[in-house]
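Thread: "does anyone have the structure for this chain?"

Original post by V.I.:
We have the sequence but no experimental structure in hand. Need at least a predicted one for the grant figures.
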Amino acid sequence: MKTVITGGAGFIGSHLVDLLLTKDHHISIIDNFSTGRLSNLSHVENKVEICEADLSKNGDWELIVKEADYVFHLASLADIVPSIENPELYYHSNVTSTLNVLQACSKKVAKFIYAASSSCYGIPNKYPTPESCLIDPQYPYALTKYLGEEISMHWAKVYSLPVISTRFFNVFGTRSRTSGTYGAVFGVFLAQKLASRPLTIVGDGNQKRDFTYVTDVCKGLMLAAFSKYTHQIFNIGSGEPQSINYLAKLIGGDVTYIPKRPGEPDCTHADISKAIAMLSYSPSISFELGVKLVLEDIDYWSEAPVWTPNSIQEATKSWFKHLKGYNESIK
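Reply from O.Q.:
Generated one for you, tokens below.
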């Protein structure tokens, strides 16, 4: 089977490569390496084809997609603050690129799997949150990921393309991103721990996140691809939210608290009953084991930036500037 993984040099993508190689897939990776790392593939580079390309622009990469039986579209830009400061870049990366990949797919493709985001729910009005919940993106990253999903599902409807969208909840694990942008809590905490600095907890730390270990997410992607279903959307999470305070306790070290941010929910909690019923999806890595595995590989984050309350305040100025006023105006 010929399989294309866009963003295959990234955090989730490289783990998906590992999983699908065990199923004898012939894998082609398309990545622009803006956040992905070639080192994530060093252990398999002689087993895969790697193409460096910008999916927002036409190119030879389209021929690779055209020959694919399965396409996993994981490539995208993440993070909140950069999306607020440069929404056009995020639109091209997350929307235009999705359209281009869909256009490149041939009619022989067995399944197109879109990697969506639970950020589309915004601040949910129901917990656990089902796929039918109100869509309410709070910032451009969330919006562009949702627009990519909408385009994918529209292509399924109009062009009979076999599409499944998977909405990820708070993925964590080894090889997660270490770039300079202030973002995911694991990368922030791990770099701080390595530097013997206090862990910066947002708000009171009682907020909960549906942390899902990366190999469980990849299992969900594979089950969706090989399933008989199409034109479907599935939440992929753990279904067991954990508090940030508990995460800090497991990582260990001193903590300090910084102001709560606008546009963030107090809880993310995936309703995974649909994925369980239709895909036989079952998360197998507990939160505690997942944190243990990450800590065993903590040196991976040795070059990540070490954030302090002051540098975080400076980096998130635009976050507060743009989102605080809107959220106050609708109260």
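V.I.: this helps a lot. The chain has two domains: 2-171+211-236, 173-210+241-264+286-326.
O.Q.: and The chain is about 40% helix and 15% strand.
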